[in-house]
């Protein structure tokens, strides 16, 4: 009899949690799921089949963007500006019984992803890679993958972490093979799928080790258990298993981030798949992976307080110090190697997409540096830690425009020149100066030179490293990271500028197909829409930075 | 040894019950039998040269693993293992392998160098994992606990979002314990998307508008639409190999 009463209250509690709390904050994802169904339904009905799948998808994404924007606006700004601890203003809401979490980082990344889709869908319409027949499949896959990425940004439970990674990855494998019949494309898809399956398997094993040892998959509870287990002493042998599990989870994350040594898929997939897919993978997938990295690093390394959290069961900041040390060492070392190898390997590339793939790898390194700094400063300089997370968020915001701009230029030039080799861009400035200027802006911003957005982003990342050094958080490693980062910025100068040199100084080939590429056309308008923010954000960056700071507030 | 590995792979307390302690009983005999079959067949998958045989050994290995789950009292996991893995591999065997395996692809030959390299990597990984599994005290302890109730009901309720099972001893308390309604529902969206992707890749497409590969590549020029241009340039980029 007691049992039945319990069951009733359990059901009521779960119903309340789901309907009143969770679903309203989950409407962006619900909107995406509804759009997927709508896109597919439209293809089944004879009249609606004429309707372009891209338009349906864009409509749904606009709704989702609106919801994401409202969620972001609903987060109170106060408490941060005045430099106080900011604890009161932090919104943290666990959804679905702790499987997901809604906070300012979730809202920011979600808004970023929806904004990305709102730009990306018109771009794919202009570049013409999913034609009318492929449209429904293509947009279903893109929306499905983005749904997974939203979950990656809000995962609060290792089950959801794994599931979100798979939801984001598996549609991407199919996207990589979008150009059926092309050997390179099929090869890219297969390679991506095999690598992804291997990484997912290793990650799952790591998750099972962690869950088996800690007795829970809920990240805040895991942090609490971690502080107990690690505190019990390393003699018990548990610590070695925990480290092994952590490293195995890191393998899965590194695969999503395309961090060295799990980056091998990246250049091949980018070269084999269409440039549109490269843009999707390098911007959206990367943003979600970095958000997930932040989630796991902060989830395991920092005890969670605040509404809806497990009431801080004995976990305190100091006890998790060794966990954080481990995380910082792994992320920091990986960041340094990733950044250097990405930049060095970009030198020998003759294919523009391959070059951008290595550039993507290098940028993952810069982002991971800031993540390492953010985790290192927890407990030593909370404001610095928040700033480092803001730097990551800002970087992702500008990276959207820079890198999608770069891939858009590659895709649209491919339509004219029938080639993606750097040599085929020779002397383009004579026939189409507009596109060369756009390329110049994007590449210089990717280097990180003022006065463009990339400079501000890179400056924020490096300043967070400096902040960590002054605060004395993991000082040797942060010094190494700062030196490596500076060195890499210099060497990246050469391979980006080589592209510009080919475009401007080299004589154009005699048999160049296609006419001039004017910016006053639909493709040109897309490029302009992506490049202008790169310039504008380099000068008026306070608006985006305010949003990024809001996102950074999650690391309180 | 196997149990320790399994315990780490599927963290269910019931699994720990499978370690034999006392005199030989049928439980231990069955455990050793299933474990031996699972290991031997797993090795056979790697060593076999013929694809069909590989798939058959895989079915045996997975079925034996399901037997281990049943022995451990995790009958839900065992049933899932049978349905998803054994059933799935069987379908793979029948359709995937037997229908598509043609003479050049039936036999897979591995070079000696690859074998040595794979063996070294595999042995290193096994050593690390074994050491890890044996280091954790609770995973090493032989225990023979009685399995309380059928595990399927609590799992089914959890999939509906309500957790009726008793919390594991020592687990941190929580206000609302996480049910699995969200993963259960969201994975259906995922499966839908993946099905669409698989259908796209598998479909032999009969295009209404002929692909630019098939028309002459002379339609190049400023007048071509973006769509045609993208199609044909994509094909022009192909490094050979359009079939």
Describe the protein in words:
The complex is a heterodimer of chains A (556) and B (243). Chain A has 556 residues and is an all-alpha fold. Chain A is built from 20 helices and two strands. Chain A has helices at residues 2-25, 27-44, 53-73, 104-127, 135-154, 158-176, 183-214, 219-231, 238-257, 265-272, 275-301, 321-345, 352-377, 382-417, 428-431, 433-447, 453-471, 475-504, 522-539, 542-552; strands at residues 92-95, 100-103. Chain A has a two-stranded antiparallel ribbon with strand order 1-2. The longest helix of chain A is centred in the C-terminal third of the chain and has 36 residues, at 382-417. The radius of gyration of chain A is 23 Å and the shape is globular. The model of chain A is unreliable at 79-88 and 306-314 (pLDDT under 50). Chain B has 243 residues and is mostly helical. Chain B has a domain at 1-150: Four Helix Bundle (Hemerythrin (Met), subunit A) (Up-down Bundle). Chain B has ten helices and no strands. In chain B, helix 1 (2-9) packs across helix 6 (112-135). The longest helix of chain B is centred in the middle third of the chain and has 26 residues, at 75-100. Mean pLDDT of chain B is 73; it is low at 1-16, 210-224 and 238-243. Classes of the chains: A mainly alpha (556), B mainly alpha (243). At the A-B interface, helix 1, helix 2, helix 5, helix 6 and helix 7 of A face helix 1, helix 6, helix 9 and helix 10 of B.
Quickly describe the structure.
The complex is a heterodimer of chains A (556) and B (243). Chain A has helices at 2-25, 27-44, 53-73, 104-127, 135-154, 158-176, 183-214, 219-231, 238-257, 265-272, 275-301, 321-345, 352-377, 382-417, 428-431, 433-447, 453-471, 475-504, 522-539, 542-552; strands spanning 92-95, 100-103.
